[in-house]
Amino acid sequence: MNPWIKATVLEINRWTENLFSLILRASISSFKAGQFTKLALQDFNKKKIQRAYSYVNAPNDTNIEIYIRRISNGNLSNQLYYLKNGSEIFIKKNAYGFFVLDEIPDSEILWMFATGAAIGPYCSILQERKNTHRFKKIVLVHAAKYQNELNYLPLMKKLLKIYDGQLKIQTILSQEESKYSLVGRIPFLLSNKSLEKKIGLNINKKNSHIMLCGNPNMIKDTYNFLKTHKNMKKNLRRAPGHITVESYW
């Protein structure tokens, strides 16, 4: 049983016309960093319009933070974008998912790949810092279309200082150039080795574990590349592997 409960909107950060963050207050159950929840609003027939979103905040934070991409024809995201402070929405009491460090085998290097708003679960994991000591290096790769979509870059820079050399961050843009970001798609930048060269670390099944979250095409293409060219396999509870995927889309 996972009931719907009410959440109050404390703040809305509208980063662009398509990306925004909700800061909420609700009496949810405890969750693990990397898990997701569901938000909902009721339509005129009192039927809930719902969608899954990952937590951005660490589990011990007082407020809930959700990072959302607004879909032009989306039934829910458009309504959420125009909410006002003090509005009430529905949220699931209990969290979902296994995209958590407890499910990740020990490895020397943990690679976190995200596109767009899928940076959320990594922000939660890295802010909590629980079990991150298991990895000698953690590499966070965030891909977006444009520079103004790297909305959590300030947080990422703060985390760099906190992790004191353990964490590396690389941003990628697909639609414009920047001297700080690589240009292209994640699978392409893996295939031509420019991503590994820029980071200064190599991906291989002996020392690396890969986490994938975001656009289904990125996940599919990156997974296929790693499977074919790096001889990696999907991580399952019954059969530990090298690639852990979040796919609640």
UniProtKB/TrEMBL annotation:
Its EC number is 1.18.1.2, 1.19.1.1. It catalyses: reduced [flavodoxin] + NADP(+) = oxidized [flavodoxin] + NADPH + 2 H(+); 2 reduced [2Fe-2S]-[ferredoxin] + NADP(+) + H(+) = 2 oxidized [2Fe-2S]-[ferredoxin] + NADPH. GO terms for biological process: cellular response to oxidative stress; heme catabolic process. Belongs to the ferredoxin--NADP reductase type 1 family. One of its GO terms (molecular function) is nucleotide binding. Keywords: FAD, Flavoprotein, NADP, Nucleotide-binding, Oxidoreductase. SUPFAM superfamilies: Ferredoxin reductase-like, C-terminal NADP-linked domain, Riboflavin synthase domain-like. InterPro entries: Cbr1-like_FAD-bd_dom, FAD-bd_FR_type, FNR_bac, FNR_nucleotide-bd, FNR_type-1, OxRdtase_FAD/NAD-bd, Riboflavin_synthase-like_b-brl. It holds the Pfam family FAD_binding_6. CDD domains: FNR1. It comes from the Bacteria. The lineage of its organism: Bacteria, Pseudomonadati, Pseudomonadota, Gammaproteobacteria, Enterobacterales. Residues 2-102 form the FAD-binding FR-type domain. This is Flavodoxin/ferredoxin--NADP reductase. Its cofactor is FAD.
